[in-house]
Design a protein that fits this description.
about 10% strand, 6 strands, about 45% helix, two-stranded antiparallel sheet, mainly alpha
Length: about 230
């Protein structure tokens, strides 16, 4: 990998009609066996350590959540799409009201992110505690379990919802060639301030330029963002 390619490499190619085309193949993925071995070792260590260190945080957040909304659960699971289109249950700390999914349909027209995602900066379904834990990425901590059991990796593309993947074109599907991650190049490059196409470009750039060095870079940048949040909401 050439020095600086991770920051400057063009993440996609276009045909004569200006349409984005496939730039990553399964063969390209197989060439990165060493990187995947490193990632799995890091995932096991990070997943175990992260869960242990998160226990007191879970307790504090649970107390705060029960004061605001006594009837709701602390954790929730959601079906996400992982490597090669395989679905799995992703775990998070609940940051929305208990009937958030039922209210989604009435909010879709207010989506503030272009493409196959839904985001609202002032989503009325988010609780007061939820807004804080989202800002600090605390709601993501249960994903250490997903990392430990192998559904996710510490670093990788954002895990999409099935309804999002249903809207993917061939170019977008390239981001499903690797395990999704708790953090990734998209998260340290603007997060929710990015449009869907920009996020896909960053994910594909990440996959193309995957290396041990770049994994470490993203992990350290993520720690800094947790201290000084960027576009999280």
């Amino acid at each position: 990998m050439e020095k600086g390619a991770f920051e400057g490499d063009d993440p996609y190619a276009e045909n004569k009609q200006g349409q984005r085309i496939i730039v990553i193949t399964p063969k390209d993925i197989r060439k990165k066996k060493g990187v995947f071995l490193f990632k799995r070792v890091v995932d096991i260590l990070a997943g175990t350590t992260g869960l242990v260190l998160s226990l007191p945080i879970f307790l504090i957040v649970a107390i705060a959540m029960k004061k605001e909304e006594p009837s709701g659960p602390i954790f929730f699971s959601q079906t996400r799409v992982g490597k090669n289109g395989k679905t799995f249950k992703m775990y998070k700390i609940r940051s929305m009201c208990v009937d958030a999914e039922e209210k989604l349909a009435s909010l879709l027209k207010q989506n503030e992110v272009e493409g196959a995602m839904f985001k609202m900066k002032e989503d009325p379904r988010v609780t007061k505690v939820g807004k804080f834990i989202r800002k600090k990425s605390i709601d993501e901590l249960p994903q250490f379990w997903n990392v430990l059991i192998g559904d996710m990796s510490l670093v990788g593309p954002r895990p999409p919802l099935p309804r999002e993947v249903a809207k993917y074109n061939q170019y977008d599907h390239q981001r499903l060639l690797v395990k999704p991650g708790c953090t990734g190049l998209w998260q340290v490059s603007g997060r929710n301030d990015l449009h869907f196409k920009e996020m896909v470009d960053l994910d594909i750039r990440y996959i193309r330029q995957m290396s041990v060095t770049n994994e470490i870079k993203i992990i350290f940048k993520t720690v800094w963002i947790m201290i000084k949040p960027n576009g999280a909401y």
